[in-house]
Amino acid sequence: MENNSILNSQFSIRTILSIIVSIFFFGLQGCTCCAYFNHAWNMENAYEQATDMREARLDSLPSDSILGSGDERKLYDRVIEKGSRIVERFPKNENQVPKAVYMMAESFRHKNEWTKAVEKYDELERYFPQYDSMPKAEYQRAFCLYKIKEFALARFSAERIVETGEKHPFYLPALELLSILQEKEGLPADAIASLEAVLATNFGTPWTRAKARMRLAGLHYEQKNFEKAREHYSHKELLILPVAERYKAQSTAAECLLEIGSGNELTAANEYKGLADSAVFKDKRFLSLIRQGEILISINDLRGIKILRDVAYSHPRSENAARAFFGIGDFRQKGREYPTAILLYDSSYQSRQNSSWGRESYNRKVALSKLLALKDTVQSLEKEKKPFFPQEFQIAELFLFKLSETDSALALLAKMDSTLEDPVLKVRVAYTRAFIYDEFKRDTSNAYPLYRKVIENFSQTDYAKQAQANMGLQVDLKTKEDLAIDAFLKAEETWLNAQKIPVENMEDVEVAYQNTIALYDSVITEFSGTQAALQAQYVKAGIYAEEIGNQDSARALWKNIADKHPRTVWGRAAQEKLRGRISMDINELVRLRNRLEQTEIYTKQNSEIFWQEMEQKKNEPPPPPQVVDDEILRNDYNTLYDFK
């Protein structure tokens, strides 16, 4: 009985409440308050549902930044729709309008519509700067500006948050974002300072500090500050990171030792051995062993060869095996054991042909085979006392470009420079040595003296001009071709002035022509072999033919150019002059022949059609005579006049 009374009382309470609510809403029917509560409730409900779906998705896939299902997008669209109606219909509501603008901005952000989100965040700050969620809006606006690559504006927004100090709830994320923006804008020193400020705070989570320290280590490494980079890569705070990032940190710390130098190679190799023996990094065991072996053989420690060989044979036909064989082959190559190196490169290529190590091994194998053949050729030519410069220069190119042996190339070129006597070959070798020091070794202390030697001893060559340019000097040297062009232009100027002399002054005209031809002759004789000399000879022939009327001398000059320099521009032009007709390109001739054939076919078709029509007309009966009515003359003025 007691239970029934309790149920009846609860039922009566619910009934009364429902009646009150019904009366309240029926009383407000037709009032704008109903629409207001409807929009506000739907907006907040849709936002909560979308947030729940998003958090569930990110819990299962933390790195997923792409908007999930269509239902999630539809919910955010509903938030935007209802929020827009609240702002439009109830602009003076100080509670719901800022909330609507904020939720719309967040919805746009979650939909990855960054520009629209920025517009809403700006609107929120402009009209409702005291809104409770304004600190979060400030940070999210900076983040959205970063996503649309407005780095300067994003940095400005992030700096405003940082200037507020640690009291801002998004101070730490803003510092991290600011460091990314500074790095994007080419300000690594500022980015380092921002990350150091992140680590200087006391309220960051261990995960946040570890990620910031990892980025800080990477920035120091890029700036070649290897001591600092190693310090951060080796820090215990990074132990919270995933295994892959921890391996990257510890292996890069070992690489920092190699970059520091000063006999740290053995320590770095031992650190890689520790990584190989660690159960945590068992998936990277072979990679660690290979790097340990490579470091050991770089200091001529033969234990490295055994390590690489064990990896290659225990893990055959893999990229690791290809890299291991390549490392041993590179060691043998540097020791001038070329036949053995070729076999090892071939083993690397066969282990994994489509890997970068396999492809490079194949190129090395081919280059070494060519190198051995060239060495045999050089020895044979040397015994026969014949010149062998091209072969030796090719060997130097192989050392430099195919075998990555810059020092070997420089040594061979230095030997050639000391033995060569031909100035053309000597300047080529001297410039090449300087260029290798400059571009490949970044050693200007050795490159610039060689450049100066080229400039002083071979000043009228293109190599000397390029040496000036490479040193950053003003290029004021002139080659033989440059001097020839200057002389030709002087002759051209004299010729143009001669043409301006009136014909009545025959004596002046003759003197001007003689001076012009003399200047062209000086170009021909003093700068023989240059293009300017050929052009001068061609122009001189034109003056003889068109101005003086001496056709025989003109044809003799044209024939000389055509016979001795048939493949040059002026040689071909002289041939056209001698033929007396315009030359025609072979492709143009083919087009003309095709056009002629088409014309013949068209003409033949039209002719056949014409004669067929004529035959048809012959077989047709003649048309009947037309009956012409007698002319009726009208008795008026015009008719009488015409009749007359």
Quick overview of this protein structure:
Helix content is about 75%, strand content about 0%. The protein is mainly alpha-helical. Mean pLDDT is about 85; it is low at about 1-10, about 15-30 and about 630-644.
Ordered list of secondary-structure elements with their pairings:
Blueprint: H1 2-27, H2 32-60, H3 70-89, H4 96-110, H5 114-127, H6 134-147, H7 151-164, H8 171-184, H9 188-200, H10 206-222, H11 226-233, H12 243-260, H13 265-277, H14 285-298, H15 303-314, H16 319-334, H17 338-351, H18 356-383, H19 389-402, H20 406-419, H21 423-440, H22 444-457, H23 462-470, H24 480-499, H25 506-526, H26 531-548, H27 551-564, H28 569-579, H29 586-619, H30 637-643
Walkthrough of the structure:
- Helix 15 runs antiparallel to helix 16 and helix 16 packs parallel to helix 18.
- Helices cover 77% and strands 0% of the residues.
- It has 644 residues and is an all-alpha fold.
- 32% of the residues are buried.
Tell me, rounded to a whole number, the average pLDDT. 84
Helix content: over 70%
Shape verdict? extended
Structural class from helices and strands?
A: mainly alpha
Number of strands: 0
Low-confidence stretches: 1-11, 17-31, 631-644
Oligomeric state of this protein: single chain
Give Rg in angstroms: 45 Å
